[in-house]
Specification:
The protein is α/β, with parallel strands linked by helices. The protein has helices spanning about 5-10, 60-65, 70, 115-125, 135-145, 160-170, 180-185, 190-200, 210-215, 220-235, 245-255, 270-285; strands at about 15-25, 30-40, 45-50, 85, 90-95, 100-110, 130-135, 150-155, 175-180, 205-210, 240, 265. Strands 1-2-3-6-7 form a five-stranded mixed β-sheet, sandwiched between helices. Strands 9-8-10-11-12 form a five-stranded parallel β-sheet. Strands 4-5 form a two-stranded antiparallel sheet. α6 (about 160-170) crosses α12 and α8 runs parallel beside α10 (about 220-235).
């Protein structure tokens, strides 16, 4: 499931400048506070996101909010000379033209009580900031509400070697997936759940391994359901992923798959997850 840190890393889809602060906890351990200054170039606005580890208390949060960088909305001394040019038109924007709207997304990596929440919000208001608080409950609730963007069709024998880690990596990239170990609950009707997942997902990732190609059970049923969705809805939703198989075996299983652009596991799971996340996010636009 997506962690609060992963939400911090992926939620603000903008041009981001980053920096860190190291603070010493009362136990003597140094903790790292992460900061992003996000530039929304279309609207010429900028705002902050801050991530505080679970060890941070109100004093640590107050200390960061009181820094000159946060108060002035600038973490890069060279911002006034930086200019962003676009690929698809001749225009450019100077970063100093972006207005600091004094919004701060505060991610705190633990569950915070109402007393601390109110204390932070009141202090933010006192110094002129609008603070949006996100603690660990936010990550839990967001995961519960997340609509899977992709369905992973696979053979159960590939879970340990590949599929379980791939699902984790996709979640870490804020790309929720329908994966049986995450999506099925005790008592669920498996066929109904699979069909619902396939019908609702934006894309269907099919892990084409030797195990999958020899599976005449659930894997075959899922594959045929995905093809039926494409035929009926006139959508291109299938993303084939070749895992240690050649074109001959793919042809024997389904010749039409050779006419599909496919991804491969040969560069590792992390690389594959990034490619899949990009393809799926492009489909969202």
């Amino acid at each position: 499931m997506t962690t609060l840190r992963e939400y911090f890393d992926t939620e603000q889809k903008a041009l981001n400048a980053e920096r860190q602060w190291l603070l010493k906890h009362e136990t003597g351990v140094e903790v790292e506070i992460l900061c992003k200054l996000s530039y929304q170039l279309d609207n010429k606005l900028k705002y902050f996101s801050l991530f505080f580890p679970k060890e941070c208390d109100f004093n640590a949060i107050k200390f960061i909010l009181d820094t000159d960088e946060i108060r002035n909305g600038k973490i890069d001394e060279y911002e006034n000379i930086q200019e962003v040019r676009f690929f698809d038109n001749p225009e450019s924007i100077k970063l100093e033209e972006c207005t600091f709207v004094k919004n701060i997304f505060l991610y705190i990596d633990r569950v915070i009580d109402e007393s601390l929440k109110n204390k932070i919000l009141e202090y933010g208001k006192k110094i002129g900031f609008s603070i949006i608080l996100r603690d660990k409950n936010y990550a839990v609730e967001s995961n519960d509400l997340a609509v899977p963007l992709a369905f992973i069709s696979h053979d159960f024998r590939d879970k340990d070697e590949l599929v379980r880690e791939l699902a984790r990596e996709l979640y870490s990239l804020n790309c929720p997936v329908w994966y049986d170990e995450y999506s099925l609950k005790a008592g669920d009707n498996m066929r109904e759940s699979f069909e619902k997942g396939i019908k609702e997902a934006k894309k269907c990732i099919v892990i084409l391994s030797s195990n999958y190609l020899s599976n005449d059970g659930w894997a075959k049923t899922e594959f045929e359901t995905i093809l039926m969705r494409e035929l009926y809805k006139k959508e291109n939703v299938l993303i084939p992923v070749w895992h240690n198989v050649g074109s001959g075996k793919i042809y024997e299983y389904s010749p039409q798959l050779l006419n599909r652009f496919a991804l491969s596991t040969k560069n590792g799971i992390k690389s594959l997850a990034k490619e899949l996340s990009y393809l799926i996010s492009q489909n969202e636009k």
